[in-house]
Protein 1
Amino acid sequence: MNLNDILQSPQGSAALNGLAARMGLTPEQAQAAAQSLIPALSAGLQRAAQNPGSLGKILGHLTDTAHQENYETGAAPPSPEAITAGKDAAGTILGNSRVAEQIEERAAAATGLSPDVIKSMLPEITSVVLGGVTSHMQQGGMGGMLGQLAQAAQSGGLSNILGGLLGGGQSASAPASGGGLGGMLGGLLGSILGGNKTAGAPGAGGIDPAMVKAGMDMLGKMFQPGTPVSGDVQAEIGQIFSKHA
């Protein structure tokens, strides 16, 4: 599964159709808006996963039940809690309001919809995406791992867990080459089972390193856009994030 797969799933498609009906749009317009936002949401998720602090915030959003309920209820209107959670999550993923404005303007130009319409759609689309990630993580047996790491993030212990799993070879907050989940977490995952850690042996915080590896591998795949993204689009989105970080 990836972000596009989530939005094209029966639940994701139903949620987009419901959103379209509530906003007076066609299903095709809602799909176009979602497709125009997927590359930025993917880039934001991968950027946010470059250090334990921002990764902890993403894990917190993934364990917010409002998102999963929003995804699984399909075309039903989202709860006020889901909309609020979606706004918070979009802010975390995109980083700040200026980035969000630029991404909304870019999506508006690509779809012919107004930036205000895209802005209204962004929280719900973000919520559906995160709810789908959580739902499929749970189906893959990784729900417990998400919960454990989210609790560690809330207590300030996520950095210690990741650092402990690294075996002291690399700082948990320093990205490895490649960036994103392919960078810091890629280096982390490559080291989790090295040193004194073995598959099935509890790591720091009593968390099984093998489970963390499998869970992060799954997250890394699910954070991918799942749609063709040209180099020009990637560069444009990257410049937006870099300019307003």
Note: Residues 115-139 form the longest helix (25 residues).
Protein 2
Amino acid sequence: MKLTVTTLRLEADGVLGVELRDRSGAPLPPFEPGAHVDVSLPNGVTRQYSIASSATDATRYWLGIGRAAASRGGSSYAHANLRLGDILEVSHPRSFFGLHDVASGHLFIAGGIGITPILGMIHRCVERGHAWRLLYCVRSRRNAAYLEQLDTFRNHVVIHADDEHSGRADIEGALQSLPEGWHVYTCGPAAMMEAVCDSARLAGIGASSVHLERFGADPTGTAVRPRQPFSVRLLRHGGFFAIPEDRSILDVLEANGVALPSSCREGLCGSCEIPLVSGQADHRDYVLSEEKRCANQSILICVSRARCGELVLDI
């Protein structure tokens, strides 16, 4: 889609709010709370940004873009160069981080810019009368986006600002007191999300009730496991390619003229998911559910590999 930048607003120190609308005023494709879009910026880079606005509002997507200290040209460009009236290429929304309606309540634990997808989930909870709580962890309140909106729900929200407290946020306490049947949703720095997962295990909360959204690959995660060479056969294309241990399937296919959708190249966005015809995938992404992994019917070719000698892809 080609969408227009209709509002720019400083949500907090280092957080830019960007409103996108259709140029003709047409409604935008629907999305589920927690969804993100791929945004192609004028400097040639494509990045994924979560939608913070309510899913009931079909007129706009409201994005929150945190300025990354080690930006690779996405957030730094957006903060310095985006202007009202700019036209941006935007994908249809995708979601790997949604609310689970079977839950009796929802505990959100957000760190910094991780509040962006969670805000959309909070809108859904308010609109449908779901029980919810938020623990919002920030370095300082000046870095905390959307405080005006959250102030309306102050009885549901605990804000932990590092410069106001001597210790860490009480993640363990929040999980130990979780009512039965509630689900947990966390997005933010990797260390915070690992603390949430560890505390959830100690509290006896099952892994299926804990949901994560990552903004970056975990340097200690599955993507850095030892790599073995294997082969890939393309069912419709007819090509057969060797995948060495130091290159991804996506890299090799691109080098051989097979152009496929891709964006993050870290197993985070899902844009390079390809149907798998045969062979056993070694899933190293962060988006496929356990059900999809066990079904072994698709693979994210930017990071995932093979547990066997050959994969056949429906390309």
Note: The mean pLDDT is 91.
